[in-house]
Amino acid sequence: MLPKGNCVNSGNDMVTKEELCKDFTACPITATMEVIGGKWKPIILFNLTFGTRRFGEISVRIPSISRKVLTEQLKELEKDGLVIRKQYEEMPPRVEYSLTEKSKGLVAVFKEISDWGIKNLL
Amino acid sequence: MLPKGNCVNSGNDMVTKEELCKDFTACPITATMEVIGGKWKPIILFNLTFGTRRFGEISVRIPSISRKVLTEQLKELEKDGLVIRKQYEEMPPRVEYSLTEKSKGLVAVFKEISDWGIKNLL
DNA sequence: CGGAATCCACAAAGATACTG
DNA sequence: CAGTATCTTTGTGGATTCCG
Q: Which of A55, B6, B30, B63 has the fewest Cβ atoms surrounding its Cβ within 10 A?
């Protein structure tokens, strides 16, 4: 028996090592950070909280991200169900990205992160 | 002039490129993620939200992090003023880590992240 | 315009062994 | 117990070129 308290439940009860590992894999913090974490995803998602954006718009608003990386990140976000990609068959091409119902719930998360950052870092 | 809306202010007003870049460097989301982001820091900090922990305790509760990386991450967190390191001159040695006033404000952040993860990912 | 493909550099992380 | 030191491995991001 180990003291209870992995990332999921870090209280003071006792827990077996098996439960610890099991809980660890189901840690909501880890799971969320894997999906919205990383260097760029929070900024991309936060950008989209203000509405639908074209690829080029996002690129302009986040000047320091390369288009290659932006493409990769958007693909991952789409795969995880956090953004919707809508492609218009026009010339020149147009692609629009927007949040999903799932990711709209992240607005509260970004608000907390932003508030903390303003208060403690800026 | 560009459409206004970097990571800080992604509304629809107009903004100069200079303002865009200026705002970008001051983005509270980016600033916060640089300090609490990464693969391990959220878990480490979340662990400490339950109280003071010894190095070995943290290591047990986060089985998948190596002690070397845990040491590195704790050092960075200490440098950024997010954890306090208290060393007892005993044999065997004892080192305790705890949150600072600054990082205690992150509890709300982790709550939001955790709630969203439970609802949408687990 | 919105990518895809390729190559490259660097930093972060893991493995292992050792120590006050 | 709580780290260091060293080496190796992995992965993320950058630069460039090309395409429908």
A: B63
Cβ contacts of B57 on chain A, cutoff 8 Å: 3, 5
- Which of B74-109 are b and which e, b meaning 16 or more Cβ less than 10 Å from the residue's Cβ? beebeebebbbeeeeeeeeeeeebebbebbeebeeb
Looking at residue A17, what is its pLDDT?
47
Residue nearest to nucleotide C2 (CA to C1'): A93
Inter-chain contact B37–A35, Cβ cutoff 8 Å? no
Whole-model pTM over 0.70: yes
CB contact under 8 A, B102 and A120: yes
Q: Scan for tokens 């919707």, then name that residue.
A: A84
Alpha carbon distance, N-terminus to C-terminus of chain B? 44
**What is the C-alpha to C-alpha distance for residues A9 and A35, in angstroms, rounded to an integer?**
21
